[in-house]
Design a protein that fits this description.
14 helices, single chain, 6-stranded mixed β-sheet, 4-stranded parallel β-sheet, binds ligand F0G, alpha/beta, about 15% strand
Length: about 400
């Protein structure tokens, strides 16, 4: 394995401290070589570490990540005109989001450098995950959060796992800039954002699991985009699984953003060579990001796969979140409902096999439930009043 730059093609050895290309600043990517694929013939066990031969670290700190449910949603599929609609429920990971897949690999690499502290900027889930893995590894955690914009469940996790928390008076993009600067000047603080190519390697295992469960790649994989690490990682996973000869085709990658926080969708539409929107805003605070660090990789994933990038409104997100909970019993956070909201607009209608990635658990953001219609009343402790509720 080596590191390479998807923009300028520069190649480097696997230096755990090297994350961005020294020549052009683009986030680097781990590249598997001929010998890596040749040696990776047997996969044993379950979860992320089943794929250890394709990962740039050895298992050290684990909480049982990966191996999440791939749920066939027949009723929703019928309503949306999709023959086989699946939801890959990443809320089933140990801290309730897909971040754990990357964090179990990222923390192993961090420990290999002798780091005493790990750090990240986060809209919430990365912070919760990193804090948990740091606790288990016995190193300290520093998280930079946009003040007032992190969902309650995620903040509670970071607090309980004992992270040091900086509430930045600014947005995620400010926090990201600050933590990158800090990790460059303070060598004992190891950066675990998705700028870190090693962490992203763990996240590619979602693609392997989907292919193993379905026997081939789906026609399309739909997921929310924020900092755009996940779409890049999963697309890489599909390509590697095909390179191994385990699948015959690749899926279309469909990335979804919130209408008022959609820099990548804009970049794809305009074929631009930059990616930024000012003052991003959305009820899906997980993806409230204006300057995604992995945008080049995300744009390649969408274009190279013949996929698409599109937006949904906050109202569409909340409706999809409620429909998924009421129709299929899956409670996901608002950002995780964005893919379904996109399908609701009639996109991908008539498709065969579609997998939506539900990136985080609904309990992460209990306040979002405020928007749902409720059948709840305060009643006297009598049979009559309960029966009235049953009927009304
Ligand atoms: N869904 C959820 C629930 C997320 O928490 C995130 C990102 C995404 C989707 C988007 O993933 O950034 O790889 O494109 N959350 C990050 C965080 C930014 O700090 O927790 P992405």
């Amino acid at each position: 394995m080596i590191l390479h730059c998807i923009r300028c093609g520069a190649r480097h050895g696997l230096d755990p401290m090297l994350h961005a290309c020294p020549a052009c600043g683009t986030p680097l990517e781990v590249l598997l070589e001929e010998g890596d694929f040749r040696r990776a013939r047997r996969f044993e066990g379950r979860g992320v570490w089943r794929y250890e031969p394709l990962l740039p670290a050895r298992r050290s700190v684990t909480l049982g990540e990966g191996d999440t449910g791939l749920h066939l949603c027949e009723r929703l599929g019928r309503r949306l005109g999709i023959r086989r609609l699946y939801v890959k429920n990443e809320g089933e990971n140990p801290t309730g989001s897909f971040k754990d897949r990357g964090m179990t690999v990222g923390i192993a690499v961090a420990l290999s450098t002798g780091a005493r502290a790990v750090a990240c900027a986060s809209t919430g889930n990365t912070a919760a995950s990193m804090a948990a893995y740091a606790a288990r590894a016995g190193v300290s955690a520093l998280v930079l959060l946009p003040a007032g914009k992190v969902a309650g469940g995620k903040l509670a996790q970071a607090v309980l796992h004992g992270a040091r928390i900086a509430q930045i008076e600014g947005d995620f993009d400010d926090a990201m800039r600050l933590v990158v600067e800090l990790s460059r000047s303070e060598r004992s603080v190891y950066l675990l954002n998705s700028l870190n190519p090693y962490r992203l390697e763990g996240q590619k295992t979602l693609a392997f699991e989907v292919c193993e469960a379905l026997g081939d790649a789906p026609d399309a994989l739909v997921l929310p985009m924020g900092n755009a690490g996940n779409i890049s990682a999963i697309w890489k996973g599909f390509r590697e699984w095909r390179r191994l000869g385990r699948i015959r085709r690749l899926p279309r990658m469909v990335g979804v953003q919130a209408e008022r926080a959609a820099p990548i969708v804009e970049t794809v539409r305009r074929k631009a060579d930059h990616c930024r929107v000012e003052r991003p805003e959305t009820v899906a605070t997980a993806i409230r990001i204006g300057a995604p660090v992995n945008w080049r990789k995300a744009v390649s994933a969408v274009l190279d796969s013949g996929g698409e990038a599109g937006t949904v409104t906050d109202a569409e997100i909340l409706r999809a979140q409620q429909e998924l909970a009421r129709t299929e019993g899956l409670f996901v956070e608002p950002a995780s409902a964005a893919p379904l909201a996109y399908l609701w607009k009639g996109r991908l209608k008539g498709a065969g096999t579609v997998v939506c990635v539900a990136t985080g658990h609904g309990l992460k953001d209990p306040d979002a439930a405020e928007h749902a219609p409720v059948t709840m009343r305060r009643v006297k402790p009598t049979q009559a009043s309960i029966r009235r509720l049953l009927e009304g």
